[in-house]
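name: query_chain
kind: protein
chains: 1
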Amino acid sequence: MGKNRLGEFEHRVLLAILRLGGEAYSVPLVLELEERTGREVSQSSVFIVLQRLEKKGLLSSRIDETTKPRTGRVRRYFQLTPAAMQQLRESRNDLMALWEGIDATLDEV
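structure:
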């Protein structure tokens, strides 16, 4: 993997977006992360990570103004870029290589 490795929370956010179909805004992301991790997640922490991942080129975003008349706010949807997909593949492969052969060791403990 390159020198721009993903932090744990960045990794989780990218995986949550992937689970949500490759595009999502912050509210469903928070709910997905809370459901999958069993931990409380703040919307502000998710948004900060979304902005950081976009700066790294791992996400792109678009504004949806169709919600403004109903909610008074626009939604910003984030999409995974090909670079994000590559990082996730590399990360998965790295972790699988590290886990290889130690399942039995964990069972013994």
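note: The first helix runs from residue 8 to 19.
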